Amino acid sequence: MSWILTADAIDGLARGAAVLGTGGGGDPYIGALLARRAVDTHGPVTVIGLDELPDDALVLTVAMMGAPTVMVEKLPSLDEVVAPVRALGASLGRAVTHVACAEIGGVNSTIPVAAAAALGLPLLDADGMGRAFPELQMVLPTLYDVTASPLAFGDEKGNVGVLNTVDNHWTERIARVACVEMGCSIMISGFPMDGNIARVALVDGSLSHCVAIGAGLVEARAEKTDPVARVVEIIRGREFFAGKVVDVERATTTGFARGRATIDGTDGSLTLSFQNEHLMAESDGEVLVTTPDLIIVLDHESGEPITTEGLRYGQRVRVVAAPSDPRWHAPEALAMVGPGYFGYETASRRFDGTREPVL
Amino acid sequence: MSWILTADAIDGLARGAAVLGTGGGGDPYIGALLARRAVDTHGPVTVIGLDELPDDALVLTVAMMGAPTVMVEKLPSLDEVVAPVRALGASLGRAVTHVACAEIGGVNSTIPVAAAAALGLPLLDADGMGRAFPELQMVLPTLYDVTASPLAFGDEKGNVGVLNTVDNHWTERIARVACVEMGCSIMISGFPMDGNIARVALVDGSLSHCVAIGAGLVEARAEKTDPVARVVEIIRGREFFAGKVVDVERATTTGFARGRATIDGTDGSLTLSFQNEHLMAESDGEVLVTTPDLIIVLDHESGEPITTEGLRYGQRVRVVAAPSDPRWHAPEALAMVGPGYFGYETASRRFDGTREPVL
């Protein structure tokens, strides 16, 4: 089923994407600003379901790569957003037919809207993760042997590069050092896929899901009901901690925003470890939830999602867990995005939606 | 005038290039090995003079980029040498007609021979510097508004990238970080030029000059005359110091081999500062010769050129200065390759071939 994404719907999409982005993907309002400007200039974007994608489509993902701490200060121009897509299409020698989101997260669910508008192409109601992850090879298409490369990248100065690498780790390594050198924030386009692959490899319906989450949040506030409870219901998650942010350690190193946050609640304290995204939640030495499941920090009252770079001392927050796309729990997927990959010495603690709250 | 470069001539070319390479450009024998293998497999290379280059030729330079300290341990394959040329040709959408040397230096005067042989293309009797310099934008074509970009790069694993940058400094910056990440040594192809530009922008006759230097060195030894004196005569230089290497400080940082060497002679000591190439010679606080003029270290007896990474405690050496291509002394050229650019706080000390030896 296809639908039209107008400028009015972009804030809701951004808000929902920031919820599923588990703290990563950059400031949703930065991406929403750009997407609204693109839609105002070039007209609304047609969003199409995976079931409507033709076999011979050429799908490219569009994303911003870098440290969200830098992204918030470097709003890309539309020229910058479309340059890597054009460079990659030229390198492939084929017309790009559809744009897709690599991940669901603040910036990276709205930047592709801007790209689709500026390029006059339809956007898929889908993404590569169903959440956000910090490294570019961490998408479900990797499990279907889709490679990130050829991948194009570009910066606000007009520098553009196209990489053809032997595997996704090399794409990540080379693009990451280029990203750091180019100012810690670049636009990328990659993961070229034919329609028949994209239909199975992507997470279906992500954009509609984001719009529903964003709408639910706003409606609950309008109805004076608890917006956090509404979000939890829509994402089939569970609130497992509430408290006040009492400490945030954060460093922007090797192109990532890494750190940890401590939240004090009535019955103890919770530590969140993040690398762009929240990756592990612990309390009193017990690991409660880990990547790949979703750890989401929401404002206590408004239910607004808080990104890892937006965490501040004194914020009153509620922490929600939700299950990831089940494919992320396959052994080969856990090797790519499980806690061990990020250097946390724990097994993956799978979120169980049927269980009582952990605390 | 065109001539045929056979396998037998490659050692002489490499030796002469190592002389003019002022200590940089990597170990000449590594490049010579590869060039001989390519000529054995694919046949000899036709070397053509700039006067024979047609206006509509498409010339690309081929070079190895990285720290010579690493290059000596990573002999590239022929596949690795030709991959960036093919990638750049494909990106330009035009057939490459001629290969050129970006610089004169051990590896980088023989690697293009290997590329020309493997690609079945003629090689120009010319190069972009008339010596070696450590950064890729440091070529005379830069003074003629030829840009390094589009530039292709590749490694031994099979990773390839093509950069389109806004200026040569950005090509250098992005390629350099990619180079470091890819193992401190990569193959590059860039500076695409039409024939009419290449004819004026390159240094004419460099390869013939190298072959003559290499032949002179070997002949002098056979005739039991002084090979250093023969080299000095051929390059119109002057020997200005002789002594024993008593100290070498060397570090491979940010993709370069940086350091300094101290040579004790009968009347004092000489300090050579290098960054891949020798860039400044000082004695007792007096600057004697600086970049862009050539500072060349030769073995005391054999006259064999010694690269910066080949400098060892106890070597008995003779140090020769020679004038660079005069275009390097233009103010805009000195801004690019003068001592100030490399962080040495001295004005360029121009070598004067008519002067008495400085010491």
UniProtKB/TrEMBL annotation, chains A, B:
GO terms for biological process: glutathione metabolic process. Residues 167-346 form the S-Me-THD-like C-terminal domain. Residues 9-164 form the S-Me-THD N-terminal domain. GO terms for cellular component: cytosol. GO terms for molecular function: 5-oxoprolinase (ATP-hydrolyzing) activity. Gene3D superfamilies: CV3147-like, CV3147-like domain. Pfam families: S-Me-THD_C, S-Me-THD_N. This is DUF917 domain-containing protein. It comes from Labedella phragmitis.
